[in-house]
Every structure is written in C-alpha cells, then in structure tokens.
Amino acid sequence: MALQCAVELGIPTAVHRAGGAASLPDLLAAVPVPEHRKPYLPRLMRFLVVTAAALSEDNSRVVYRLTPLSRLLVDDDVAVNGCTSLAPFVLSQTTRFHVGAALRLSDWFKQGADDDSGGAPAAEMPFRMAHGTDPWDAMRRDPVVSKMFHDGLGADSRLALDFVVNQCGAVFDGVGSLVDVGGGDGSSARAIARAFPHVKCSVLDLPHVIGSVVVQQPSDGVEYIVGDMMSFIPPSDAVLLKVCCSTCHQHPSLPVNSE
After folding, report:
1. Which residues in 12-34 are b (16+ Cβ under 10 Å) and which e?
2. 4, 12, 165, 229: which could form a disulfide with 94 (CB 3.0–4.6 Å)?
3. Distance (Å, rounded) from C-alpha 246 to C-alpha 259?
4. In this predicted model, what pLDDT tens digit does every residue of 22-66 receive, in sequence order?
5. CA 2 → CA 21, 54, 71, 150, 222, distances in Å?
6. Are 10 and 75 in contact (CB under 8 A)?
7. Can you tell me the distance from the alpha carbon of 174 to that of 183, in angstroms, rounded to the nearest whole number?
C-alpha cells in the first residue's frame, strides 16, 4: 500500500523532475499534500527506502534517488528512457477488491470443502469469498474499478509490446491476421498494427469492455469484437493470449480445476 501511496502522490515523478535526486524539502514542495500532513511524509519515504520498494537514499545528504523499479513508475509524459509507465498497473492491482481478496487468502486455504461459513466453498476463489462474486462481475458493476483494471493492463501491454515489436518482430512473418483475446483497450493490438501494417488486428472482449474502449480510444485500424472467449474466438492466423493464460482457469464459464 505504501507503493500505491507513492504512485498516487506522484513521488517517483517528483524525484525524476528534480533531476533524479530529490531532497526532502524538494519533495515537500512538489508532493500535493496539505501542510498538516507534511510532517508524516518522511515516514513514508523512510519506509520506501528500507523496503527498497521505490527509492534509494544517499545517507550523506538525505537525498532520494530512483531505483530501477521506481523508474518504471514515472508518469508517461516524462517517462524515463522512453519506457511506458507502469504506475497504472500498480494502481490496478491495489484496488479495494484486490486488497479485500488478499485479506481472505488464509481463510480460503483453511476452509473445508463443505464449509460455506466464509461465503463461498473452498474450491472457489478468495475473490469470491471476499466479495461474493467473481472479478468480471465486480468490474461490470463498478465502471471506475473496471477502467482502472484495463488501464493497468494497457500499461503492461505497452511495455511488453515495445519489447516484442522491436526484438521479436520475426514472429509476425507470414501472419496476415491476429485476434487479441481478452485484449482490453486494444493496446497490444494497436502496437502490433502500427509496427506491422500487413497484420489485420482485432480485439475480442466482453461487452462492457468493448463499449468503453470504442468511446475512449482511437481504433488505429483495429477491429473491436464483442464476445466471450469461452464461447467464440474469431478465425485468424494467430491468437494472442497475453493475459488469458494466467486468468482463464478462473473464468466463470469454466469448471473449477479445469485445464
């Protein structure tokens, strides 16, 4: 949560804008907190340094510097070395839904198969135990959390695809069409379409996801298709499963422990 706080306060960006090394007075002047909260900022900074989560400290002058991790958390408009900021990804993984599910993890492990006292059978996800529903339904009900989640996946995709298109472009030789299954805001598909114009890219995702993407994002020649990957995947030369491989086993359309 300290890392989430640092991102929301813009601390990595403030250090970067100070030339990569910021004193405590520099941060107190740059971070948007009221005067009566500023005495507590050194405690947060010390925690970030001790855990090596985001900053290092020059003890001789009490100057804070960016670590390799915190360089990835600088805002996109001043991104270090052209790297995409992963700040949205940090925020997407520290929502109240994620934290609530994490707090029920030990309960989930200890719960017996026939014990429903925790709100869900032991065979189901800690997320459902904590919130009474699955992540997809939770995001359908909460547009703010849904946007935060897909912004995070988009940031992760942009960082990963920057590497893929520059270092692994040969994998797209001979590929005429590609569908990004569960492609969210289409960040991956757009990156591929820009780098390889001969590849016709499309994105398959659920209705509430596609509905928000079309309004908020330019298509860049990418086709957006409404659908459920468990029911239908459009025919194409290649299928991109960037995130689905780690999450599809928890999809509500699949039985528990399905492979």
Report:
1. bbbbbebeeebeeebbbebbeee
2. 4
3. 11
4. 999 999 999 999 999 999 999 999 888 887 655 666 666 678 888
5. 20, 9, 16, 22, 38
6. yes
7. 22
| Whole-number Å distance between alpha carbons of 14 and 11 | 5
The type of residue at 48 is L
Q: How many whole angstroms separate alpha carbon 175 and alpha carbon 196?
A: 10
Tokens of 254: 């699949």
- Domains of the chain (ranges; CATH) run 2-81 (1.10.10.10)
Q: Find residue 126's DSSP bridge partners.
A: none
Listing DSSP states for 53-105 in one string gives SSEEEETTTTEEEE-HHHHTTS-GGG-GGGPPP-HHHHHHTSSHHHHHHHHTH
One-character DSSP codes across 8-63? HHTHHHHHHHTTSEEEHHHHHHHS---GGGGGGHHHHHHHHHHTTSSEEEETTTTE
Per-residue pLDDT of 54-108, as tens digits, reads 566 666 667 888 888 888 899 866 555 556 789 999 999 999 999 999 999 998 8
* Pair of tokens at residue 156: 């992760």
Whole-number Å distance between alpha carbons of 49 and 68:
13
> For residue 25, what are its two tokens?
């007075």
Q: How far is CA 225 from the centre of its chain?
A: 22
Terminal CA-CA length for the chain: 33
pTM of this prediction? 0.73
* Residue given tokens 């004193």 in the structure block: 23
Residue 223, SS3 per DSSP: strand
Q: Any idea how long the chain is?
A: 259
